[in-house]
From TrEMBL:
EC number: 5.6.2.4
Species whose genome carries this gene: Solitalea agri
Gene giving rise to this polypeptide: recQ
Ranges of residues in domain HRDC: 525-605
NCBIfam families xref list: recQ, recQ_fam
Protein name: DNA helicase RecQ
InterPro entries xref list: DEAD/DEAH_box_helicase_dom (IPR011545), DNA_helicase_ATP-dep_RecQ (IPR004589), DNA_helicase_ATP-dep_RecQ_bac (IPR006293), Helicase_ATP-bd (IPR014001), Helicase_C-like (IPR001650), Helicase_HTH (IPR029491), HRDC-like_sf (IPR010997), HRDC_dom (IPR002121)
Length: 710
């Protein structure tokens, strides 16, 4: 059955081999074992249940959390020639009845349902020949997970009503506690548990602390301008930030939009649809813009603020580079983010758990060792080598003896002798003349201005390090005021020394608004970049015609392979990863034509006469008509027929009888006997009273020369 699964993989999805663990997971499912799969976003989770569903007899029911996600996945499956459908609240009764009828008739292999729809559909589902149940985003079932959804708790009914049907639960992010809870909640029977590597080496990781708002906005605008035509998401902590930032991006000539829970459902759907279909380049979103994004060509993700936990951060950066191409992630954070997120954690349920997860997120942000090492180890996977693709690896942190600097901060804190927050402490250290500080008499203490040589941002970063090292602590229940720990007192009184890390120095360049005219004058594209854009446009035409996302036709990684390998035959095109038989049949001809046209745009002076004949022969072998060859190669149709005649004469495999009949050849033979072997086509044309076209006379003469003995 695994061999059959591999055939299905190539036929419907265009891949020759399974990714790591997919083979083992599929084997487990085909053996009818309950299975739990932890695989990072972009790691190929869907293949793990879609391929077995196509190998097995009967129906696979897929529980998926969002209507938009269902539609995207069903559209992609249909493009690949797979019978797929969904049932959810967006459909009319007539459409539902049609889907049910198709399921009963065995026309549907994968049926997607929302968890809300599932419970009311049980009486209907028992009528179907269900052979597999897949639960996507399975972490939603656990209150220990980062995205708990109460409606997922009803899924425990599945094992009761379908005890002999294997269940596969899939998620991208779940710690050990959450994994155990998923198994318990779903009542899985001795499941096989597969944990794929959480490493996404194609994602670069960068974290920036203490960047002020205006400076941050300038950096982001400059970054997006450098990424023209690349899709990206900016995650923000509040609705207000999404709207303010999107307005600034639009004012800078960037096609951006906001997305948050305060918008109407229609507004959110429109924004998401525009982003998925490349009509919007950037979405500034709250975390509400999450699981519904199945877009493979997001090239970068920025966090405008610190996420509340590592699970959320990892899942959100996972939106980038799902196609495996190099993609960038940047996280900005500040102490104010930490204060606000701590307030949320204190007020919410599971207070202690949420505080601890936020603390781990803070440790990742403040780390002075390889970011990926911390991130991967958090999920229980040993990752010992530095990754070389994060900001710490790129710019190793330099340590210095920070004892004196720490003593200045702690001395000022003790001399103030009342609860103060981070900003006030920094103002005292820098010798600020703010009215509140003067009124409180803080300008009279001995350490007033003791740290004036450092910028506000640098002091912020140093205090964050002191918090992370346990030198300072924040009294969240006393207005987020700072207090010294026992370790801090030891340093203050000279009993202990401690190293700190030098802040990262950044060069910030002012960003101007780039007009459309200026964008047109940007550096010229290379030939391969031009071909990539041509293929993108062709993909967009198909996508708009079929009303599906462009990446459902071919993802960017597949287009890049086309650019690199430039396939011009069906065999070569089918060998491209991501091209299955159905897509070859539907799109192959047009994409190969575009590639061939690109090749023929090269300087003619660089191509010999033999080369130009070879190009015509190559197109003929791809079943191009002479008229289409003339159009693609921008030459006269008579020249094309001249090539065909010459190719046939020298023994090339050309079916000449497709263009000239034996009856016409026989008439040219008689003319040749009458007038002799003239080299002038006009002599034959006149002798035959203009009854046969010039190009057919040329073709007939080639046939006669090659077949003199016939």
């Amino acid at each position: 059955m695994i061999d059959t699964a591999r055939e299905v993989l190539k036929k419907h999805f265009g891949y020759d081999e399974f990714r790591p663990l997919q083979n083992e997971i599929i084997a487990s499912i085909l053996a009818k074992n309950d299975t739990l799969v932890l695989m990072p976003t972009g790691g190929g989770k869907s293949i793990c249940f879609q391929v077995p569903a196509l190998v097995m007899e009967g129906l696979c029911v897929v529980v998926s959390p969002l209507i938009s996600l269902m539609k995207d996945q069903v559209d992609a499956l249909r493009i690949n020639g797979v019978g797929a459908a969904y049932l959810n609240s967006s459909q009319e009764f007539q459409e539902e009845d049609q889907v049910i009828e198709q399921c009963l008739n065995g026309e549907i292999k994968l049926l997607y349902l929302s968890p809300e729809k599932l419970k009311s559909s049980i009486p209907m589902l028992v009528r179907f020949n269900i052979q597999l149940i897949a639960i996507d985003e399975a972490h939603c079932i656990s209150s220990w997970g980062h995205d708990f959804r109460p409606e997922y708790t009803q899924l425990n009914i599945l094992k009761e009503r379908f005890p002999d049907v294997p269940i596969v639960a899939l998620t991208a992010t779940a710690d050990k506690v959450t994994r155990k809870d998923i198994i318990h909640q779903l009542k899985l029977k001795r499941p096989n548990v597969f944990v794929a590597s959480f490493d996404r080496p194609n994602l670069s990781l960068e974290i920036k602390g203490g960047v002020k708002g205006k400076e941050k906005d300038r950096e982001i605008i400059s970054f997006v301008h450098r990424k023209r035509q690349q899709s990206g998401i900016i995650y923000c902590l509040s609705r207000r930030i999404t709207e303010d930032l999107s307005e600034k991006l639009v004012a800078s000539g960037i096609n951006a939009a906001a997305y948050h829970a305060g918008m109407s459902a229609d507004e959110r759907n429109e924004t998401q649809d525009d982003f998925i279909n490349d009509r919007i380049q950037v979405v500034c979103a709250t975390v509400a813009f999450g699981m519904g994004i199945d877009k493979s060509n997001v090239r970068w993700v920025i966090h405008y603020n610190l996420p509340k936990n590592i699970e959320s951060y990892y899942q959100e950066i996972g939106r980038a580079g799902r196609d495996g191409l190099k993609s960038e992630t940047i996280l900005y954070y500040s102490l104010s983010d930490l204060v606000l997120l701590t307030q949320f954690a204190e007020q919410g349920q599971q207070r202690e758990l949420n505080i601890e997860k936020l603390r781990r997120m803070q440790q990742l942000a403040e780390a002075d060792i390889c970011r990926r090492k911390i991130l991967i180890n958090y999920f229980g996977e040993a990752f010992e080598q530095d990754c070389g693709n994060c900001d710490v690896c790129a710019n190793p942190r330099k340590h210095f003896d920070g004892t004196t600097l720490i003593q200045k901060a702690l001395s000022a804190l003790f001399r103030i002798n009342e609860p103060v927050g981070v900003n006030m402490l920094i103002d005292v250290l820098r010798g600020s003349h703010k009215q509140e500080l003067i009124e409180k008499g803080f300008d009279k203490i001995k350490t007033y201005g003791a740290g004036s040589e450092l910028s506000f941002n640098h002091w912020q970063q140093f205090i964050m390090q002191m918090l992370n090292l346990g030198i300072l602590e924040m009294a969240y229940d006393e207005g987020f005021s700072l207090k010294s720990t026992t370790m801090g007192k030891e340093i203050l009184f000279g009993k202990k020394t401690t190293n700190l890390v030098y802040p990262v120095v950044r060069e910030v360049k002012k960003t101007k608004v780039v007009s459309l005219d200026e964008q047109e004058r940007l550096p010229a594209q290379t030939p391969d970049e031009k071909l990539f854009d041509d293929l993108r446009r062709l993909r967009r035409e198909f996508a708009e015609r079929e009303d599906v996302p462009a990446y459902a036709i071919f993802n960017d990684a597949t287009l890049e392979r086309m650019v690199s390998e430039k396939p011009q035959t069906e065999t070569a095109f089918l060998s491209i990863s991501g091209v299955g038989q159905r897509k070859l049949e539907k799109y192959g001809q047009k994409f190969m034509e575009a590639i061939t046209l690109h090749i023929n745009r090269g300087p003619r002076s660089q191509r010999s006469k033999g080369d130009t004949f070879k190009e015509t022969l190559h197109l003929l072998q791809q079943h191009f008509s002479p008229e289409r060859i003339a159009m693609v190669r921008k030459m006269n149709i008579q020249t094309v027929y001249s090539h065909i005649a010459q190719l046939y004469k020298i023994g090339a495999e050309v079916d000449l009888l497709k263009f000239v009949s034996m009856d016409e050849i026989e008439k040219v033979r008689l003319a040749q006997k009458a007038i002799g072997k003239s080299e002038q086509l006009k002599d034959y044309y006149d002798f035959l009273n203009h009854a046969i076209d010039y190009y057919k006379i040329r073709l007939a003469l080639s046939w006669l020369e090659r077949n003199e003995d016939v």
